[in-house]
Amino acid sequence: MLKEKLQKAKIFINSDKFVQFLFLTIVVVLASYTRFYNLGYSDYIGDEHKAFIELEEGQNLGNFFMNQRKGPMQWFVSHIPYLITGDFRNELAQRIPFSIISVGAMVVFYFVVKKLTKNIYTAFLSTLLLTVNGFIVGFGRIAQYQNLNLLFSFLAIYFYADLLGEKQKREQLKSTFYGTLFWCLSILSHWDAIFILPVVVVIFIKFLKNEKYDLNEKKTLILKNLLLGCLILLPFLLPYLYFQVTNQDNMTYFGRRIEIGHLLYERYKLLIILYNPFVTLPLFITFGLVGAMFYKKSWIFSFWFVFAYICFELFVRKPGTHIYNFIIPATVLTGIGLVSIAQKLPNFFRKVWILMIFLTFSFL
Asked: Cβ(74)–Cβ(148) under 8 Å?
């Protein structure tokens, strides 16, 4: 009996399941440490103090949400610890739900990259890069919407990507409903959710070209998802958009943030170096380009990156930390580049290369 158990344990240790378990353990431990360590030590920063439902005198809840610059999800989440503590000034309690969501987002990201690349090593390196990225770590330590965007957008891609697999039609339809649900929740967290559009479009184009479905089945799936999306979004968006376009202060704010014709490469560079000093930027540029060269593996991430980057270059006047939206696909391109080089090397040099990768990661 003992011999049989030891044999099973040996088989498990030598399997991809064990490797994946090890990878996910590293991601969760690293993500948890960088998010939860000394989490409550600082006062609220930036817009963090605006993430709580604090009504002005005479203001009702509906008017409060109409006056915000984004959807209501972050206020729902930030109200959970308040129901327990009764104190919005408890920085640790208010941040904990967002930090938990940030850790969860990293786990989901691993499975998204694994599903799209079919490579656990690319998924691990890409997730490791995103987990320690200064922008993402910073978001994971504050009570802000970005963590919700990350989690819900990654979940949306994960479920939509089932259309590319071999699941039964009924299961694929169910997965698209989950995808639509989570994308809507991401939109209701912040408009940054739009930046996963290239991935979603590619998935649905491939679905439309799939001969397993006839034309009526394709129409039915798309219409059902459009209906579900409308049912979730429109009850909030219709009154919200009407309020926004009829409010001069909001239109002025919008005009300050969105304007055609601004090329801000130098500002992006400064922001990336500020949040990610040392070797991150050259690592991304060098191996991101290498990853893009392996276009059969990476073209969907290249498309995602180009779409997001061009949107910021052409339309966004004050991008701020929102540039994390094109850093996400850049991490995957970098992961593909690093793994693709390793796969091309002889065994000895591959081990040296892997050692160099992890030594480099210690400076991120």
From this structure: yes
